[in-house]
Write a structure and sequence with these properties.
Layout lengths: L8 H4 L8 E4 L9 H9 L5 E5 L2 H7 L1 H5 L3 E6 L11 H8 L3 E4 L2 H13 L3 E4 L13 E4 L2 E7 L3 E11 L5 E2 L8 H6 L1 E11 L18 E4 L7
Parallel strand pairs: 1-2, 1-8, 2-3, 3-4, 8-10, 10-11
Antiparallel strand pairs: 5-7, 6-7, 8-9
Length: about 230
């Protein structure tokens, strides 16, 4: 029978290496897979591209990724929080050792959804006339100018869920679910840390992500309400 449970963090991140693209579920500092982020930071993998709602919280929980300059590119809808203290990632953005693809929140979410659906790109009016649209293809539809946004996919997705069953079906609590299903679908290998792995199957009504999109699950306690 299919059993997607793994025993430890080494098994959870097996195969993650240089040059890969990694997505992170959650929103800001809430709902993040903190155990997996810390385990990622302990690996030697470099030249990484990260896709996350917020870059700053990756720096908070995995500072070595930035201190050792192992992230070369980030795709995010927020590079920092209002009023936050400048961190290493901002210094690296300024000196060019880290590049950033900033996307409006809706476009960010749709780029991930498109990646999971096999859609290579789409047009949207969001960001037209702003620096975010500079250098992107423009096209008019029904009298409204739009920009072309490309889909996002990843080699790994690291996320947090509240419950799972052995087959990888997931139940989210609160902000854990932000971008979760779309990131799972857009990834070659979705790894999920969960508070509880239930006996048998999750009730159908509780399944937020079907196990077909999940590769590995590991049971780990909550950290800071993740």
């Amino acid at each position: 029978m299919i059993d997607k449970r793994v025993a430890n963090l080494d098994e959870a991140l097996a195969g993650l290496g240089d040059g890969m693209t990694i997505m992170f579920g959650g929103f800001g500092g809430a709902g993040l897979a903190i155990h997996l982020i810390k385990a990622l930071a302990a690996l030697p993998a470099k030249d990484l591209t990260v896709v996350s709602n917020s870059v700053r919280f990756l720096e908070d929980f995995g500072p070595a990724l930035f201190e050792d300059k192992r992230i070369k590119h980030a795709v995010a809808s927020a590079a920092r929080s209002r009023g936050s203290v400048s961190g290493i990632s901002e210094i690296q953005l300024a000196d060019g050792t880290l590049t950033l693809d900033i996307a409006p929140q809706g476009s960010f979410a749709e780029r991930i959804r498109a990646g999971g659906a096999g859609i290579p790109a789409f047009y949207t009016p969001t960001s037209v006339g702003t620096p975010v649209a500079d250098g992107k293809e423009h096209r008019e539809f029904n009298g409204r100018m739009c920009v072309l946004e490309t889909a996002l996919t990843s080699d790994f997705t690291l996320m947090r869920a509240d419950k799972a069953d052995r087959y990888g079906n997931l139940y989210f609590r609160g902000t854990q679910g932000n971008f979760g299903r779309d990131m799972a679908a857009a990834s070659k290998c979705t790894v999920v840390e969960v508070r509880e792995i239930v006996e048998g199957l999750l009730p159908q009504a509780d399944i937020h992500v079907p196990g077909v999109f999940v590769k590995r699950i590991i049971q780990l306690p909550d950290v800071r309400g993740a």
